[in-house]
Design brief:
About 15% of the residues lie in helices and about 30% in strands. Strands 7-10-6-12-14-15-23 form a seven-stranded parallel sheet, sandwiched between helices. A seven-stranded mixed sheet has the order 17-16-22-18-19-20-21, with helices on both faces. Strand 33 and strand 34 form a beta hairpin.
Length: about 1000
């Protein structure tokens, strides 16, 4: 049995879990109660998510006996009612139950079954049960559930006096000849919003009768749980809001529902309503806050339809619930997903992998970069993976301003949407009233009551400060930043308020100190002005480099994410100002739905484009005239990716609609990326990545076919490749030439020097980047732009390069009892260098006869595995292998499990058939244990040979260094020649590389003379 088919390559990557809707035999309430009971039955249990080996519905293209393919054709969606799909789902469900039963776990402990975008399940397990389940043959990964969170800045709502909110205008969507003018408004595109739910009665989601029938099947409309919250009125979905699902089984069972929460799809936070209305809210919706009319607002794709998936509660969301929402959206047939949700950076989290399959299904996904900026490497997950479009947050030109008129005749201005004070009031410093941070319960009402209060940012949320002033009887608030590089927010405050910069705040503080009890202030608000620093990056927007994949540039683009006026829930969380249907919150949560809306426009205009092509169009047409959050220096690709989205103006040649060239990447390309960025996700990295390489898929992360070019470790020179495809509308050939802005300290050349393509044709080009003096460990930026001869098309790519000290291949191979090999090393420094030889070491061959495990469940102590111990003290490298020719019958399927000296499972190989290998670099000192498990012996027992190698960290042996550089010179490429004598059987050695910083790496030398 071979696993180099598409199906099994897919299964091999899934060392992280994605979830899909449980089969509908139980309702959500029943599942919550069942999960509560399962958790209560064993206080040591928790929810785990499990990945299985077979294809999910969306990628299954046959191979199982009597089960027809279920993979949808191009341009088609999953039909969950199709009998072929239902039969395959039943087959997967049986496999889930079988794996649990073989591990001694009752299938009733499942929380979800996942079938459509990923094959697996969520289940309640003890740690021992989880370990035992991980040994089962069809189980790829078992991992504990984890939390994700919304990515908005806490409490930031806003207002505008009688004008249409600015995002569509700011991005040029309303221009003559632009998308709206051409009827591109998202008509019949379905946007799925995975968030905190939705306020269904909001006018942004009203059906005015102009919408046609739903373009997808019927979706549940999960509202009306008045038993939990009487304000949860029933609602019948319509042809604008097609449906809404609550996906919180794990959350409700473990955390429950606070009294203020709606135990349904209804939004009790406001975040989900805001993101949905930003992406796809109706056009021309009258907005107001505090009773003030604010003009009208519009979603970016105002004619798109909406399906809401509530995957977040008050405290965040569990991965099992969120991935269930992703898979459910895939099954429902949405075209676009907005995911303003994030957590720690990752490449193999449950939502990471769910979205990999969603992308394969043709779903365009926008996600927020995170709100952990402005520090380096603060991108979160799933924004850290390349198959999603990651959006940073920047400012727009419209600015809601308020002004405080002080008693000495001076004024300070800042951000505000609140009503004014309506007169002059005494002004006090909160530092004299209990604390300048204005924390609830600390302000003395005797000092604050009837006065305007000066509060400093920090410690608590901005709106919490005005709430503290409100509770103490204050008449207004002036809040100031701790620096002049932070942003000014327009929160829905509890008292008339303005938010000012540090300089203005210090001036107010000095005025209070000098004027004493005679200090006064009169706050006026409601002025709409121009923010002269737009666009500039927000301080909170997470920055690159990508912490888990430095060879890709993140974010991909930036979009407006400050003072975004859109929908709200009138029943927000306690402490938030209630009763408002609109707010202007800030965060990368707010910038992401701008791009989701743009994707809906692109989907309408180009229904045949892949997600990667749509992302490419946004990136290559972006503009780079963006300031950093200091409002003076230029932002760079780790701030904004390719730049600010530029979807507006006439949709002519060179626009998002007609970018000329696109960079496409599909499923196998992303697997090739994982060979470099996350090889641990593969059950057999060498086999899987070797297969991908054999069919021409690049397996270096820097060669992933993205519009951006990143190289994280460049000691000398490197050549990367990209492939572009023409989407120009002209029938004639377009000829493009490159223009390069090289990063400082590097030279960049492009081959060929021009490319000529007709529509639909593709060309591969190569970019050679050479370090000509850049220091190691520091990033530098440049760009590459392909421009056609007419200058109608200008296709931009950012470049980011970081120099490295050293690079060498991981392994070289040879044959013959006596022989030689050569390989190159590259240096990024000038200094000492030495190469040393370790080995060769012939394989130690242990022959065994392992008996059949009746239940095929690996358990180290059940007697159905042979065990071997190895003392690895002082070892540089350790490998065990049972190749295919080490067993006598191809039907035999043995597995290998390796435990470290602490008794932890350190590695395993459980491929179909027998072809197992597990390796460790610099293993910890002590005694390691290797188990050979008789999963399928094709008889009562199976005879096998197990090969093992232990390379000492001390040089010595029959491997010789014939020539090697005696020192390192920055930019130099040198050759190391090695030779060996007396190599018998299957031998292994290594060359260690040592420089100024000590050991820099190993290059294995494998000589196979079997």
């Amino acid at each position: 049995m071979h696993k180099l088919t598409r199906a099994l390559v897919i299964a091999a990557i899934l060392l992280a879990m994605v979830v899909l809707p449980v089969s509908a035999k139980q309702g959500p309430i029943d599942r919550v109660e069942a999960l509560k009971a399962n958790l209560a039955a064993n206080p040591n249990s928790q929810v785990y998510v499990v990945t299985m080996a077979a294809d999910p519905v969306i990628t299954y293209d046959g191979g199982e006996e009597d089960l027809a393919p279920t993979k949808p054709g191009n341009g088609h969606k999953i039909d969950v009612n199709d009998k072929k799909v239902q039969r395959y789902v039943a087959h997967l469900n049986n496999k889930h139950n079988q794996a649990l039963q073989e591990a001694g776990v009752n299938p009733d402990q499942k929380v979800y079954d996942y079938y459509y975008a990923v094959n697996g399940f969520a289940v309640v397990l003890t740690e021992d049960e989880a370990t035992l389940l991980s040994y089962q043959k069809d189980v790829v990964m078992v991992r504990p559930d984890e939390m994700r969170y919304i990515t908005s800045e806490p409490a930031v709502p806003a207002n505008s006096p009688v004008l249409t909110d600015s995002s569509p205008d700011f991005m040029g969507l309303t221009a003559d000849g632009g998308p709206y003018d051409k009827g591109i408004t998202g008509e019949n595109v379905v946007v799925g919003v995975i968030d905190t739910g939705i306020w269904p009665e909001h006018p942004s989601f009203a059906d005015d009768g102009s919408y046609g029938p739903s373009p997808i099947g019927p979706i549940p409309c999960d509202f009306g749980n008045t038993a939990q919250n009487p304000a949860d009125a029933p609602f019948t979905c319509n042809n604008k809001l097609l449906g809404a699902r609550q996906m919180l089984v794990t959350y409700r069972a473990i955390i429950g529902a606070d009294p203020d929460e709606f135990d349904s799809a209804r939004d009790d936070n406001g975040h989900g309503t805001h993101t949905a209305s930003t992406a796809a809210g109706n056009a021309g919706v009258a907005a107001s806050i505090y009773g003030q009319p604010l003009g009208t607002v519009s979603g970016i794709a105002p004619r798109a339809r909406v399906v809401a998936y509530k995957g977040l509660g008050n405290l965040g969301g569990f991965g099992s619930d969120l991935a269930a929402a992703i898979d459910q959206a895939t099954a429902d047939g949405v075209d676009v997903i907005n995911y303003s949700v994030g957590g720690g950076p990752s490449v193999t989290g449950s939502d990471d992998i769910a979205y990999l399959f969603a992308a394969d299904a043709g779903i365009f996904v926008a996600t927020s970069a995170g709100n952990s900026g402005p520090g380096d490497a603060t991108i979160g997950g799933p924004a850290s993976v390349p198959w999603l479009t990651t959006v940073g947050a920047s400012t727009q030109s419209r600015f809601f301003q308020g002004t405080a008129h002080l008693g000495d005749g001076s004024t300070v201005s800042g951000a505000s949407i609140t009503l004014g004070t309506g007169g002059t009031y005494p002004l006090v410093d909160a530092a004299a009233a209990g604390g300048d941070l204005c924390i609830s319960g600390t302000l003395n009402p005797a000092v604050v009551s009837g006065k305007v209060v000066l509060c400093r940012r920090g410690a608590n949320a901005r709106a919490d400060k005005s709430y503290a002033v409100y509770l103490a009887g204050g008449a207004g608030m002036i809040m100031y930043n701790n620096s002049n590089t932070d942003n000014l927010f327009t929160d829905t405050h509890w008292v008339p308020s303005i938010h000012v910069d540090y300089t203005e705040g210090v001036a107010v503080k000095a005025y209070i100190a000098s004027a004493g009890a005679s200090a006064t202030a009169d706050i006026t608000s409601g002025e709409v002005t121009n923010w002269s620093y737009a666009p500039s990056m927000t301080i909170f927007s997470s920055r690159g480099p990508d912490p888990v994949a430095e060879d890709i540039i993140k974010p991909d683009v930036t979009a407006p994410g400050l003072q975004i006026l859109a929908g709200n829930s009138p029943y927000p969380d306690p402490g938030s100002y209630p009763g408002e249907l609109f707010q202007a919150i800030a965060g990368t949560s707010m910038s992401s739905p701008h791009v989701a809306g743009l994707f809906a426009l692109i989907k309408q205009a180009h229904p045949d484009w892949t997600p990667a092509m749509a992302k490419s169009a946004l990136m290559t047409t972006a503009y780079q005239n963006v300031l950093d959050n200091d409002r003076s220096s230029a932002a760079d690709p780790f701030d904004f990716g390719a730049g600010h989205v530029n979807p507006g103006g006439p949709w002519n040649k060179g626009s998002v609609d007609q970018p000329g060239l696109v960079y496409n990447a599909e499923f196998y390309d992303y697997l090739g990326f994982l060979c470099d960025a996350g090889p641990e996700v593969f059950a057999n990295p060498a086999g899987t990545c070797g297969f991908l390489a054999s069919i021409g898929v690049p397996t270096d992360a820097y060669n992933l076919n993205l519009p951006s070019i990143g190289v994280a470790n460049l000691p000398g020179a490197i050549t990367i490749q990209r492939t572009v495809t023409s989407v120009a509308k002209e029938s004639s050939t377009r000829t493009y030439k490159p223009t390069v802005v090289a990063p400082p300290g590097y030279s960049v050349s492009v081959s060929p020097s021009q490319i000529a393509l007709k529509t639909g044709e593709s060309a591969t080009y190569y970019v050679t980047i050479t370090n000509t003096g850049a220091p190691a460990g520091e990033w530098f930026f440049g760009s590459l732009t392909w421009t056609d001869k007419t200058h109608n098309y200008s296709v931009y790519s950012p470049i980011a390069v970081k120099g490295a000290l050293f690079d060498a291949p991981d392994a070289v191979s040879g044959s013959g009892e006596d022989g030689s090999a050569s390989f190159d090393v590259q240096f990024g420094y000038t200094g000492s260098y030495s190469a040393a030889a370790h080995g060769l070491v012939p394989a130690t061959v242990d022959s065994g006869d392992v008996v059949q495990d009746p239940d095929q469940s690996f358990n180290p102590g059940d007697g159905y595995s042979d065990s071997y111990t190895f003392n690895l003290s002082g070892a540089a490298f350790f490998r065990v292998a049972i190749p295919a020719d080490a067993v006598g019958d191809p039907a035999i399927d043995l597995d290998v499990f390796v435990f470290d000296p602490d008794g932890n499972l350190a590695g395993s190989s459980t491929l179909g058939g027998t072809d197992e290998e597990v390796s460790f670099v610099s293993p910890m000192d002590g005694t390691w244990t290797v188990f050979v498990h008789g999963w399928q012996t094709a008889g009562p027992s199976a005879v096998y040979d197990m090969y093992s190698w232990v390379l000492s960290a001390t040089p010595g042996g029959s491997l010789n260094i014939d020539s090697a550089p005696a020192s390192a010179t920055a930019g130099a490429i040198s050759t190391i020649d090695v030779s060996w004598t007396g190599a018998t059987g299957w031998s292994l050695g290594a060359v260690s590389h040592t420089g100024d910083v000590g050991l820099m790496g190993l290059t294995l030398v494998e000589v196979d003379n079997r």
